Amino acid sequence: GSLKIDISRVVEPARKALGLIRGEAESQRVSCSEFGGDESEECLALCDSDGCSVVASTTALRTLKIGIYFALWFGLSTGYNIANKVRLNALALPWAHSAASLAVGSAFVSLLWLTGLRKPPKLSTAAVLTLAPISFCHSIGHIGAVVSAGAGAVSFTQIVKAAEPVFTCGLSALLLGQTVSAPVAISLLPIVFGVALASVSELSFTWVSFFGAMLSNLAFAARNILSRASMDKPKGENMTPENLFGVLTVMSFLYALPLALVMEGPKALATWAAATKTVAPAYILKYTVTTGLYFYLYNEVAMLALNNVHPVTHAVANTIKRVVILLACVFIFRTPLTPLCATGSAIAIIGSYFYSMAKGKDKAAKAAVEESEAAAEAAPPAAEPSLCAVSRAHPPRSDPPRSDATTAAASDCFGFRLLRRPRDPIGTLTDTARI
Length: 435
Hints:
By secondary structure, the chain is mostly helical. The chain contains 15 helices and 3 strands.
């Protein structure tokens, strides 16, 4: 009997799932207590004419969804770094490869928009001008990372890329006048020390690889600063985080293509001819398309993950992702690591973790202060009774009544701040790290 019940718990939801596909059933959110579960929890049920079957609690489904996002993020990111190095080994044209990756991503997202699978964005001239400098920095950041990976080991690029927070804090101080807290400043020290130690002990060290990764750090830090400065500027319609990244990919390609032609155009044909003597053109083209899809998809999944978890959780996962990529590339490409290089790598990555934790605490503290200030401003002024008493004691003059526009504007402003509005897609860029 118990076996029959267990089987029915699997078969019945599966039958209703097929009915959902055929349009004969629908999904509903119901209280788990109706099916013998916790009354405080909500469950997802599939219902048809025969009744409803619970699939799982919404909490469990959300956990599963986040787990899938992180698994895809880690897998696609690792696949991108491996495929990127393979194509660079086959054809040493990093600027062209960078443009090709952005071209593949642009074609992919354009297909989604043209087929209606994703609602296309609508951009005004003002929105394009807002996104133009951000997309330029995004393009340079991507190019720098690819140049670095082409001139050295992928693991070394990952180590140097861990120093991006140092550039972000430095540019924030120089351009925005922002200061960092003591915990954040202290967390930057192991990052700098770890990257320096790994660099001096890296067996495959090249200055091109080092400066390429540093250029990428600088560009992505500048992109983050520009994103913060553009929070209140026009961004267009239907600009979800996914569409924002799609638009940035298309605009970044428009920058990367002419740069590739300038930097590598004169030698491109000769390099291609030399490469195709040992490697089939189809092999290079396959890895070019694969790498472009990996790059676009892993960045978009990273944004989806960020929108479903706390930024600190996302930062921790990003730190773990960097370790996974580093170890995978060391294993796949048989990259030798000296003990000092491994120690420096570990110190830099641990430092980036503590930086993420410190920044998360700073953001939480700042948000709490802003909410308390907004609540205090929105509350009735304590001095109101005394002002009323003064007005009763002194009859009003014949002046026209004062406009309440300023008061209304302040009320609207604080009401807007108190509402927990959806994350600004531009702001999403400041919380994600890309390679």
